[in-house]
Amino acid sequence: MPSLDETIETLRAALKLSPDNLPLRMLLGENLLASGRLEEAEREFTVALALAPSDLKLAVSLAQACFGNGKYSQALVIIEDVIRKSDVPPKAFLLYARLLLNEGKLASAQENYNQAKGLDPSLRDATLEERLGLKGDSGQSSLKENREQRPMGATASGEMREIEREKDSAYGSDNYLASEFDDLVETADTGFADVGGMDAVKEQIRMKIIYPLKHPETFKAYGKKMGGGILLYGPPGCGKTYLARATAGEIEARFIPIGLHQVLDMWIGSSEKNLHEIFEIARKQKPSVLFFDEVDALAASRADMKQTYHRHTINQFLNELDGVNTSNEGVLILAATNAPWHLDSAFRRPGRFDRIIFVPPPDSAARASILRIILKGKPQENIDFEFLAKKTEKFSGADLKALVEDCIEKKIEEAMSKGSEPKPITTKDLEKSARGVKPSTAEWFSSARNYALYSNESGLYDEIAKYLKL
Length: 470
Known about the structure:
Layout: H1 4-17, H2 22-34, H3 38-51, H4 56-68, H5 72-82, H6 90-102, H7 106-119, H8 126-132, E1 186-187, H9 199-214, H10 216-221, E2 228-233, H11 240-250, E3 254-258, H12 260-263, H13 270-284, E4 288-292, H14 308-322, E5 331-337, E6 355-358, H15 364-375, H16 385-391, H17 397-418, H18 427-436, H19 441-454, H20 462-468
Helix pairs in contact: 1-2, 2-3, 2-4, 3-4, 4-5, 4-6, 5-6, 6-7, 13-14, 15-16, 15-17, 16-18, 17-18, 19-20
């Protein structure tokens, strides 16, 4: 039996031969919808609806694709037009109930859900009934105690996409010297529009990095040079590396990610040499974004170090940041750490990592966007991402990925034990997995809380205190 992806490709090939074949296009749209390829499904249904404007089932399918993409207003317009007609498909009332629930219109949502279930009992959704406050099959409604019904938040400003790294050695400088670090240089193909949430963080990066590049005359008038460093800190798995890569993509700069193993060496003097060579590569590829992950291991407090050669490595790092022997203008240095309290204070001086930015766990809108991306291309059915976002407070991006993986494993296990085809992932499946996954950020905030309360004389951890409402 062909897989869903194979079926989709077969249908696409058939449509090339017969582009006006409405049943084929509708079937392709339905398969794309089932596989979670919602944007593609939306395009196919739009084309199909142009061929058959009066087809109500087709209009409902388009509205479902819009709903899955977070385009609630568009889905609402389509559905409200459908339900004014005669012979309304039962699924239209079900989707209308979901849309009304998103707007906090509980009574109307209950009414439309009951109408959908009355026309087609197979549409019953236990999870939706629970959210609507409906008691089983009786249709009697009651509001759950202590449960607020509010309009769901809007989706994040831009949906996060999976990153495909592109290696490119065709550098712009004719004087470039071959190096063992050559293959570290990447061409970033993602920008801020692909990063959900983090608006405050992105604005700080714009001021420090992007605006000086795009408006150099304004900054030069005040004697400001383009360059310098930004330190991103926060719980693990919250997108610090992704944000750094998006920064490079935003300014169309080379992205050079550096891990500990690229710098540290057992031979005395080799670590310093590696650092210098890495910075030289970045200087020859201007504009470039040099990104150091887990920088606290490279820039730890010298007072805590017993080995002299480790201190030499830190001193070399500081010299490279200062551009003692050469200019760092056009080199944008980003670093990430989960433990800013271990960083040597010398790195926080002006001209080095003089802007320190807290990257918190994704907010509700960003969590919904992350879940959409993780589930893209996977079989799914009417997933309410905003509802799941509310159920995953303080989850990091990594936690959300673990949640989905847990859900998929359970669906596969269920299919294997019953000897049946895998069933689509539902909101209820994901909600059940969410109960078993604990946010990994809790332990980090436990440590960070102590620093925010008792070691914050400089105000470095004010953002943590604000986030924790201390």
